[in-house]
Amino acid sequence: MQQLLDRDSHEVPVTLRVHAAADLGDADLSVDRYLSREFHDLEVERLWGRAWQLACREEDIPEVGDTTIYDIADRSLLIVREAPERIRAYHNACLHRGRQLRSEPGWNAELRCPFHGFTWRLDGSLKEIPCDWDFPHVDPAAFALPEALVATWGGWVFINMDPAAAPFEDFMGTFAEHFPWRQEDLTKGVHVAKVLRANWKVALEAFIESYHVIATHPQLLVSLGDANTQYDVFDEQPRWNRMITAMGTPSPHLPYEVSEQDIMDDLMEQFMGPGVTFPLAEGKTAREMMGDLIRGQVGGVTGEPCEVSDSEAFDAIEYYLFPNFVPWGGYSRINYRFRPYGNDPDMCIMDVMLLAPFNKAEGRPPAPPVHWLGPDDEWTDAPELGLLAKVFVQDTFNIPRVQRGLKATVKPGVTLAHYQESRIRHYHQELDRWLQVELAPSTNGHSG
Ligand code: FES
Ligand SMILES: [Fe+2]
User: Fold this and answer.
1) Ligand 1, residues at Cβ distance < 6 Å
2) For residue 439, what pLDDT is reported?
3) Residue closest by Cα to atom 4 of ligand 1
4) Ligand 1 atom closest to Cα of residue 94
5) pLDDT recorded at residue 441
6) Is CATH 1.20.1530.20 the classification given to domain 53-171?
7) Residues sharing a CB contact under 8 Å with residue 378, sequence separation 6 or more, in sequence order
8) C-alpha count within 13 angstroms, C-beta hemisphere, residue 142
């Protein structure tokens, strides 16, 4: 990977020159981690109840009064734009008899419970109790909606249900320094959420290594350097890791030589369809040519010249911020999120969110609603995903079958590659640190 960066036609950002391969050991990971109710319950209490996690994009709630919902296991948060520059997250349950305050995103002047009409202002203070003469025992000042912590970064909104949590900036460590691409300048153009029959970690792990490409996506090998992928895991940075997979270079697994023109033809076929060719000028590599095409395209949309490196324009530069956020760096549009679906260790939700540049003079276009796919729907039922859908179909063909195999196996643990699957081990070690913390008993049965 670093040799390809040496030959980039443009200057490469410093962070891509960093390579950290911490030695994390080789012990098997227990199968129970993916299957057991006890492990899932611990995650709900000690991880999801305490860690900063991705809830939504800022453009999901652009106007004061806009609300959206972030569900995680049995917990649910109502994310509300209270003021142009202030977002709040309320536990999505009425303080009267507990009805969900909202079950759909949308605009509200105030938060009025549909059951009996208890009403709160957008700032969470109590506005009205119908027949308040019947509630002399309720102190209006103490009847504000309980809230979670909120932080924003890169146009993303993060929440934390633990009122005593350290700030998000501390939580993410050096992640922001190593992610120099301004996602706040992009906007969400596609959001597809698919329910999968697997533990959330099984799904996540299918997307944070390129080791599976040879068997799962063999059609990509002519133009993807799978086994040349750089994996970065830092001893002293437990909350994030990264991989860089080069595009426009052949897989080292290929048993035959391919020319730059072969690579270009392969890419054109993938991106533009069969029969489309793009003759390379003398001395031009496929990577450089793809870089030129993408730089031209981005410049065409934003109206400003785009001078990013070939690598940023085209490679798969994928970060993982523990526990649920997987943004791609460079000029890629791709971002994932993984989380349990309901309170079930055998089910999860994978969100795919594609960000796009937009013309600032014309204003930010509205974000689309979430397109939900059930466990039996195919990614290809979401045509807005374009070419990605077919690749995701290959990935998600494995995912429920991994969950099924983990239940059938007589081997107590899964065995990981030392380097190519180091990101998986890295986050499991961090997960262990969260789960081993003993919590003080809480009064309402929830942590935090
Ligand atoms: S449950 Fe909300 S007003 Fe009664
Ligand atoms: Fe894949």
Assistant:
1) 94, 96-97, 99, 113, 115-118
2) 58
3) 116
4) 2
5) 53
6) no
7) 389, 393
8) 4
Cα(396)–Cα(219) distance, integer angstroms: 16
Distance from C-alpha of 43 to C-alpha of 324, rounded to nearest angstrom: 12
Token representation of residue 395: 């990935």
Residue 31: in which H helix or E strand, if any? none
Domain ranges of the chain: 2-49+184-435, 53-171
Look at residue 264 and tell me whether its pLDDT is greater than 70: yes
Q: Using 50, 70 and 90 to split pLDDT, how confident is the model at 300? A: confident
Give the closest residue to 61 by CA, choosing from 35, 43, 87. 87
Q: List the residue whose alpha carbon is closest to atom 1 of ligand 1.
A: 97
Q: What global pTM score does this model have?
A: 0.95
Overall average pLDDT of the 362-389 stretch: 96
Interior angle at CA 113, CA 109 and CA 115, nearest 5? 145
Picking from 258, 242, 241, the residue whose alpha carbon sits closest to that of residue 250 is 258
Give helix then strand counts, H and E, for the chain: 11, 20
C-alpha distances in Å from residue 335, one per residue of 57, 76, 148, 156, 198: 11, 22, 24, 11, 20
- Burial code (b: 16+ CB inside 10 Å, e: under 16) for 289-301 equals bbbebbbeebeee
Tell me which of 118, 128, 131 to substitute to probe ligand 1's pocket, judged by most ligand atoms within 8 Å of the beta carbon.
118
Would you state the pLDDT for residue 443?
A: 43
| Helix H or strand E segment including 337 | strand 334-341
Pairing of the two strands 334-341 and 344-357: antiparallel
**CA of 116, closest atom in ligand 1:** 3
126 alpha carbon to ligand 2 midpoint, in Å? Answer: 48
Q: What is the pLDDT of residues 25-68, one digit of tens each?
A: 999 999 999 999 999 999 999 999 999 999 999 999 999 999 99
CA of 95 to the centre of ligand 1 (A): 7
Query: Which CATH code fits 2-49+184-435?
Result: 3.90.380.10
Q: Which residue has the tokens 């959330």?
A: 200
Look at residue 444 in the predicted model and tell me its pLDDT.
43
* Mean pLDDT across the chain: 95
The answer to whether 404 and 346 are in contact (CB under 8 A) is no
- Give pLDDT, residue 440: 56
Give the SS3 label for residue 427.
Answer: helix
